User: Fold this.
Amino acid sequence: MPFLETLRIEASARHAALAVAIVAAAIFVAPCASGGEAAHPRLLFGSSAIPGLRQKITIEPVAAMYRRLVADTTAPSASPEIDPGIRDDGPWAEGSAAARCGFLYVLTGDDEWAKRAKVFVERRINDVTEGTSGTGWAKNVKGLRLYHFGKSVALAYDFCWSAPSWSQFRITVSTKLKEQADFIF
Assistant:
């Protein structure tokens, strides 16, 4: 590989790492810097968009998509001992279920969805299993699982930020996400 091409690749990787660090700083540091409770910097849409999203779920075809999201999220659970109202297809689906439940909290404002998201997030961030059945998140094992679950936990964190059931839990999740980011980089 020519020397200049190698430099371009290395520079791109540094720029990507810098971009991730800036986003992480905006999410984790900026709210605390003011000394008070700052507005949460949402990842996918601003707080002002939420009333419009809630209205859209009442109008077709979005209403049909909303009903499908609810049905997919509340399908019969493979592990009813966890929560009989949440679909659970194992560790890989738990992260996605956390994000879906969190998004349903945004769409409805119903804290029950945030509580359901919390169940999955707690399981993911406290997982110490290894091998094909676990993520090793709490064991700091690098790999695609760690990144996959990190994305899903970050989405659930973002969606459930203002949920009453997350008022203290969001501090724990923020800390775990920061630890994960430090471990990855």
In short: The chain has a mean pLDDT of 74. The helical segments are 3-28, 30-33, 50-56, 62-73, 91-108, 111-125, 144-159, 169-184. Residues 104 and 113 are 6 Å apart (CA to CA). The chain is about 60% helix and 0% strand.
